[in-house]
Amino acid sequence: MMKTTMDLDALGFSEWHAGVALAALEPNLQWARVVAVDREAWVVRAASGECVAELAGRFRFGVEEGLDLPGVGDWVTVQVVSPDRAVIHAVGPRRSVLSRKSPGREMAPQLIAANLDAALVVQSCHYDLNTRRLERYLVACREGGVEPVVLLNKADLVDEDELAGLVCDLRGAGITGQIIPLSGVTGQGLDRVEALLEPGKTYGLVGSSGVGKSTLINRLLGREVMATQGVSGTGEGTHTTTRRQLLTLPNGAMVIDTPGIRELGLVGASEGLDESFADIKALAGSCRFGDCTHESEPGCAVRQALAEGSLSEERFRSYQKLGREIEHHDRSYLEKRRKDRAFGRHVRAVMRGKPR
């Protein structure tokens, strides 16, 4: 059933969206925001309320890949056909996106969330903290124009000296930006997170399974909404969230909760890589040769920084590994698109020549 009406501004329809939105809507359409996705089911919220939505046939037929489908946080044009049902006709422009390579062998980007003002990247102090994995999240965020904030959750499971050492290690590894230690159980650091969340803005909550995202959301909401499960003897949590959804906090800020990410492959993320590893990018600009591979060329500023210890070998190797992965996935994805388009042209040609 339709829920209480609300202003589009409160849903995050900013001046940017208004400026790039479709020039005019058809008389029977309105803007709505996707607030939940569960397989082939969408829930949208418009000024008139909230309801379940399906894709219009023409729109579905024109979808070439998963990234074209509506995702949580998207603005879509809908036709409300009854108090509890709507039809999605188009996806509006995205101001920012958080995506990854589709899991498995499929070489295509998969949307995680759209139109985020910032991403809260949750890592567990106790068992989950992995600098190399965190770098992947930061690259994905910056590629999509999303500002990342690192939340070191479960701070209650480590002592103060160990926590300070973890933060120091991340800084030493070249991780910049905000890092906030907190505990979804005790509330430690929660005030710092709440101070970040502004009314009318949208924040994505991402991280591996079991890092405590659901517990954190319950604390931010001030009530038990998300199912949670206790941690094991190692401090590892259990995966509980099963769908992506947008939740409105008491102060009017919005948080998109996502299922735990087990595999964060990167595709089309070269700019995000350069931004996340800006120190290495700057060093490379000082190399004697523009096509320096940073292996054995004379006058290599990167090799010099490695020798002097101002750049760690681990960070440089991570940069190289991610760069090779992105290049491989991009090349495979482009080849897949060419094959798909060639097959589509073949099918259309066959259909045109088919006797009526």
UniProtKB/TrEMBL annotation:
UniProt cross-references to CDD domains, sorted A to Z: YjeQ_EngC (cd01854)
Enzyme class, UniProt record, top EC level: hydrolase
UniProt remark on cofactor binding: Binds 1 zinc ion per subunit.
Residues that hold GTP according to the record: 153-156, 207-215
Its EC number(s): 3.6.1.-
Subcellular localization(s) per the UniProt record: Cytoplasm
Cofactor(s), names only, from the UniProt record: Zn(2+)
CP-type G domain boundaries: 104-264
InterPro entries (alphabetical): G_CP_dom, P-loop_NTPase, Ribosome_biogen_GTPase_RsgA, RsgA_GTPase_dom
Keywords tagged on the record: Cytoplasm, GTP-binding, Hydrolase, Metal-binding, Nucleotide-binding, Ribosome biogenesis, RNA-binding, rRNA-binding, Zinc
Principal cellular location given in the protein's record: cytoplasm
Pfam families to which the protein is assigned, alphabetical: RsgA_GTPase (PF03193)
Binding site for Zn(2+): 287, 292, 294, 300
Limits of the EngC GTPase domain: 114-262
Source superkingdom: Bacteria
Subunit structure: Monomer. Associates with 30S ribosomal subunit, binds 16S rRNA.
Function noted in UniProt: One of several proteins that assist in the late maturation steps of the functional core of the 30S ribosomal subunit. Helps release RbfA from mature subunits. May play a role in the assembly of ribosomal proteins into the subunit. Circularly permuted GTPase that catalyzes slow GTP hydrolysis, GTPase activity is stimulated by the 30S ribosomal subunit.
Protein family according to the UniProt entry: Belongs to the TRAFAC class YlqF/YawG GTPase family. RsgA subfamily.
Protein's UniProt name: Small ribosomal subunit biogenesis GTPase RsgA
Organism of origin: Actomonas aquatica
Phylogenetic lineage: Bacteria, Pseudomonadati, Verrucomicrobiota, Opitutia, Opitutales
